[in-house]
Design goal:
Layout (H helix, E strand, L loop, with lengths): L2 E3 L2 H7 L14 E5 L6 H13 L4 E7 L3 H7 L4 E5 L11 H8 L4 E4 L9 H11 L4 E3 L2 H4 L6 H4 L5 E3 L3 H6 L7 H12 L2 E4 L5 E3 L4 E3 L12 H14 L4 H23 L6 H12 L1
Parallel strand pairs: 1-10, 2-3, 2-5, 3-4, 5-6, 6-7, 7-8
Antiparallel strand pairs: 8-9, 9-10
Helix pairs in contact: 2-10, 2-12, 4-5, 10-11, 11-12
Length: 281
């Protein structure tokens, strides 16, 4: 399989121009299902990254028990509470999620979501009913490790963003990195963005390799930023494989800019979110 190495010129060509006659509904209506007790930062980082990456409308659904925290943290995203079990989303949240999903262009499930008993039914319902692309990250991936047929049966676009541990839990191999990632993408009928040094993005037929990024990004919250960024690019009608590839490059480049000004030890995912507007400009 031919693998393409991303560069700034390629990413620039893929990013769409902003329509001067456009309105907020033209730049993506995103539904983010994130967060649980103890993981409020993951939801906030994903939502902020989506806003900073050009999304028109960002709807963030969180467990009712952390709604007040997220509502105070966030101004631009539209935060709303969902039924929970005291910590994580419960299955009783499904009807409202599906009703909102009908009006959205992309759905992100996973950052900080936890693995409570209601999370798996929520993820399964989204995969079954969503006609828009679905991005599965973190616990959105983990709860499906024993239910991979749900991915194989899906007719819509699915993008998975596993690190190597999550990749292994999905059944990925431990041999050649590209071959194993492509094989799992084919098996699960998904685009896979396999995070790590030299992130790989493939749909099983074509592949991109990203060489931006640095060790300062190896910290909690960095993946949440990537998930929000990717969801925003999908909402702006970039094709799924290319959206994932652009997100990987932009995420890594934002990290490199932070490292240049702050150093790898002190940079944070929040710094990367703040860097995205300058980078995209």
């Amino acid at each position: 399989m031919e693998i393409r190495v991303l560069d700034e010129r390629a990413v620039h060509r893929l990013l769409p121009e902003r329509d001067p006659w456009g309105h907020k509904g033209d730049f993506g209506r995103l539904l983010l299902l994130c967060g649980s007790v103890g993981y409020t930062g993951a939801a906030a980082l994903a939502a902020r990254a989506a806003v900073r990456s050009g999304a028109g409308l960002v709807f963030l659904g969180v467990p009712r028990s952390i709604y007040a925290i997220e509502a105070v943290k966030l101004d631009e995203p539209i935060v709303f509470p969902l039924p929970d079990d005291g910590s994580c989303l419960s299955a009783s949240a499904i009807p409202e999620i599906l009703e909102r999903l009908q009006r959205c262009d992309v759905c992100l499930v996973g950052p900080g979501l936890g693995q409570g008993p209601g999370v798996l039914p929520v993820v399964q319902a989204v995969l079954e009913k969503a006609r828009c692309p679905v991005v599965l990250d973190a616990d959105g991936i983990n709860v499906l490790a024993a239910h991979k047929d749900r991915l194989r049966e899906r007719t819509g676009v699915t993008i998975l963003t596993p690190h190597d541990g999550e990749f292994a839990r999905l059944g990925g191999g431990h041999g050649d990195r590209l071959e194993d990632t492509a094989a799992l993408a084919k098996d699960l009928k998904a685009v896979i963005l396999r995070k790590g040094h030299r992130t790989l993005v493939t749909d099983g037929e074509r592949a991109y390799e990203n060489r931006t990024g640095n060790a300062g990004m190896a910290t909690g919250g960095s993946g949440d930023v990537l998930a929000g960024l990717l969801t925003a690019l999908l909402g702006q009608s970039i094709p799924p494989l290319e959206a994932a590839a652009c997100a990987a490059w932009l995420h890594g480049r934002a990290g490199d800019l932070c490292a240049q000004t702050m150093g790898q030890y002190g940079m944070t995912p929040s710094d990367m979110v703040k860097t995205l507007p300058r980078l995209l400009k």
